[in-house]
Amino acid sequence: MEATGEICNLLLVEDNPADAALTEAILETANFVPFETTTAGSLRNALSLLRQNDFDAVILDLNLPDSRGIDTLIALREDFPRIPVVVVSGANPLGLRDEVLRHGAQEYIWKNEPDAHFLARCILYAVERFRAQEAHRQVRQLIDANPDAVIVVDRHGKVRYVNEAASQLFAPSGDTLVGDWLGFSIEQGTTSEIEILGHGHPVTAEMRVADIEWQGEPAILASIRDVTENRILSDQLREAQKMEAVGILAGGIAHDFNNLLVVIMGNTEFLIDACEEGDPRREMAQRIDSAAERARHLTRQLLVFSRRQPSRPLVLDPNDAVFRLYNMLRRSFPKDIEFVFLPAEEGVWPIWADPNELDQMLMNLMLNAKHAMPDGGRLLVDISNATLERPKGRALPGDYVRLRVTDDGTGIAPTNLARIFDPFFTTRPVGAGSGLGLSICYSIVARAGGDLSVESVLGEGSVFTVLLPRAEEAPGAEIKIGDFATRPRGTETILVVDDDPAVSAAVCQTLTSAGFTVLTASNGEQAQRIILREADTIDLVLSDIVMPQMSGQELAAWLDGAYPQMKLLLMTGYSENMEALESVGSATRGYVLKPFMPTQLLRAVRDLLDKAADQP
To answer: Is pLDDT of 5 > 70?
Structure first.
């Protein structure tokens, strides 16, 4: 052994001064490494010195004034398990060496046998072996603390090492994997994705592989990371992006379609008024009007799905809301379907939702359940309180009201279950459904801050579960829609601003037929010029929101600065910013949503004119 130049600091625990001096003298003659020795005459003194100083090793005599035999080693190891110990004993009974090594000593030496080099080598080897063991232990701790599964496989495919994460992933029951075949092949030098059946459910994992040497033989190191949650989040992100893209498309289609419906519905109402009772043309016009109303309902569905329909949430009692709809629908269900409603017990929490959207969502779910039971069955709607401790779908932890719609109908095929909430996806024949029903339900629940999920078994039925957030306030009264049967009239001057000539013509016809004087502009900039020229004669500006060059909201901002008392009524099929649209509801601002009947438009104009006239 060559000299290293490093000083080895030793604690010599020996109560016999002569033996201590002899040991020190022997170590001084070792020419390959310098030793620096500190002597302790008792176990208590040794423990005190170990607390105050850093030593590379302890040379320990087992028989001391305050401790005897193997208990001396045990006591020292309990307080200082991270220091190598070489036991030097004057006695050498049978079995003592094995017992000493079993209790943590790195070496056992009989005092009568060593020479200087032998004792020095034993001490150095003990120190080096202990340090190697400590390094191995630390590496093992680091690997076990790694959340990724780490596995070493030999060239025959047998497992040679696994860390704690690998044991939990592949053998959660506690069975050892070492010595067994892994169960799947590992290709050297690649990164791949694998599926593992862990803890009773599939786990998606990413595996990275490297070539190593294990115990002198070629082996493969596999690092396996559970990416199931990342995959779920990625799928949810893609789903959200897809829904957003379809929503933008749906909103744009609805806006253009609403403009067409304004023309159709406006002219149809005038045609009906122009035809006498019994006139065949009146009946044809009424059929057109009925079809236009169905088209308006479809555009409303598109707008709800795209979240461009203004939501007016109220604090509702879920029992009352569902019971009202249940009473309305149960008469339309065939007698071979048992329709049951189980309200929540006393103490059900209120919810914060738009009553019209809630009705639409529940009606879609109930009618879907009805169609799933062509040969009869049982439809159950029940309500209960629910508290989530962890996120569920879109719902964050918190208090919710749970509504379940359960049927024992045909069920949903697994291949369709993943797409059941996709817009325009339907399992019904062509022409029997738009495929918007469940996607609109999902959109309504998501807008309310809740979650909609489905469980289904083919041939056994389905369960749709709705979670709606708990509201802190008490339920309030619902807003009732007024009767617009009487068509308002007026003599004021109205400036109509719309870039669509057909819509502008229909609106102007509605206003002039009711006695109003009408001016027209095809865009916001033209409207500015007319207002600057004739502001004193204009009583109200009726403007579309979505227009080229200058939008209705930009025109409103200009009026706020130039003519703050000028009345402005905005009309739109949708708005990208519903909060901004809602904010215009002041004494001189209002809005009306397309498509509207002529009577509804006149009522909105008349209300804003009268409201502004009442202001001081």
So the answer is: no
